[in-house]
Design a protein that fits this description.
The complex is a heterodimer of chains A (about 280) and B (about 70). With about 280 residues, chain A is mainly α. Helices cover about 90% and strands about 0% of the residues of chain A. The two termini of chain A are about 65 Å apart. Classes of the chains: A mainly alpha (about 280), B mainly alpha (about 70).
């Protein structure tokens, strides 16, 4: 491709446009990446936190109902006590188990998964202890056995409560971590966009400067030559700076100056050779 | 295209409107012939004459270039 001014300008503007497109592309990518990352982190962190809270709520409700059952079973009878307290408590325990399983599935790292696996395990222990306590209460076992069964139930309830609290703390941490992740991604996106924009700006400025120099330097030289010639100084050198239209113009100007020099010399020669006429 | 036209075409790219007069004078002074009568045999001598004379009006590199192109015809 011939390096004409038109082609140079086209290449320069195309370069700047490509640069702008690249900067815009990277900016858009950063924004979408940030959005995706934020959505992902918020979804996992928020969900884990919500599940952990729900586990604790079901746990408290289950234990409240079982305490009611153990208190009232002798007074209202096994059948009614089961209907009033135990059925609902069983539902709550089942909910705790399924929520803990779900939390294990969505927890993003092994440490968090382990916390919720402990809840799942302690729910199993809790159910067994509850069955024994219910059995002891309903079959009217001796006080010693009843006390042992109740103590085992209390211990398992405390363990479940403790594990549920750990799960709740893990949920809060996951939520906080997700916010930290969003902040980190956001900062990264800002720096990336600022960096790329500055780089684009520098490249744009250097490209514009180079383009301006490529056009202005030969034009300024021609202007200087034209000024000299117009003031009668023909001993100027016309330089061809570039292979474009301005280079062609420089050649034309050079021819013109050479012709003027030649004709002036020819005229001077003719004048000197002509016989002097009296005025 | 006559030999004269070929030489004139080259000279015009360096001297523009003065080319015809310049070439005519160089042929008369340097080769002692009319410009329209030049033949291929004159090109080498003409190139030398043109180079020396053109240096007064154009840069030496351009004059040398012009002479080379004429000699190469």
């Amino acid at each position: 491709m011939k390096p004409t001014i038109r082609n140079k300008l086209l290449a320069g503007f195309s370069g700047v446009m490509l640069l702008m497109a690249a900067v815009a592309g990277i900016g858009i990518y950063s924004v979408f990446s940030l959005r995706h990352s934020a959505e992902d982190a918020t979804r996992v962190g928020g969900l884990l936190n919500a599940v952990a809270l729900e586990i604790q709520v079901h746990n408290l409700e289950a234990q409240r109902r079982i305490e009611g059952y153990l208190t009232d079973v002798k007074r209202i009878g096994a059948q009614r006590a089961r209907e009033t307290y135990l059925d609902e408590a069983s539902f709550e325990i089942h909910e705790i188990e399924s929520l803990a399983d779900r939390a294990v599935d969505i927890a993003p790292d092994a440490a968090q998964r382990a916390k919720f696996q402990k809840i799942v395990a302690s729910v199993g222990v809790y159910e067994k202890a509850l069955d024994q306590a219910v059995d002891a209460a309903e079959t009217r076992k001796p006080d010693a056995e009843l006390a042992i069964a109740n103590a085992a139930y209390t211990a398992s309830a405390e363990q479940l409560h403790e594990n549920a609290e750990d799960g709740e703390a893990t949920g809060r941490e996951a939520s906080q971590t997700s916010q930290d992740d969003i902040a980190l991604t956001s900062r990264r996106a800002v720096w990336l966009t600022v960096g790329v924009s500055l780089l684009g700006l520098l490249l744009g400025i250097s490209m514009s400067y180079t383009l301006a120099r490529a056009i202005l330097t030969p034009v300024e030289h021609l202007k200087s030559v034209a000024e000299n010639v117009s003031l009668g100084n023909l001993e100027v050198s016309v330089r061809r700076y570039s292979e474009d239209e301005i280079g062609d113009l420089a050649d034309s100007f050079s021819r013109m100056v050479a012709a003027v020099k030649y004709f002036r010399l020819e005229m001077e020669t003719m004048e000197s050779e002509a016989p002097k006429r009296p005025i | 295209m006559t030999p004269y036209d070929s030489v004139l075409a080259i000279t015009k790219t360096y001297l523009g409107p003065a080319a015809e007069s310049f070439l005519s004078r160089q042929c008369q002074v340097g080769l002692r012939i009319e410009a329209s009568n030049i033949t291929k045999a004159h090109f080498k001598d003409l190139a030398h004459t043109v180079e020396v004379a053109a240096c007064r009006f154009i840069d030496r590199p351009k004059a040398e270039d012009m002479a080379k192109r004429i000699a190469a015809l």
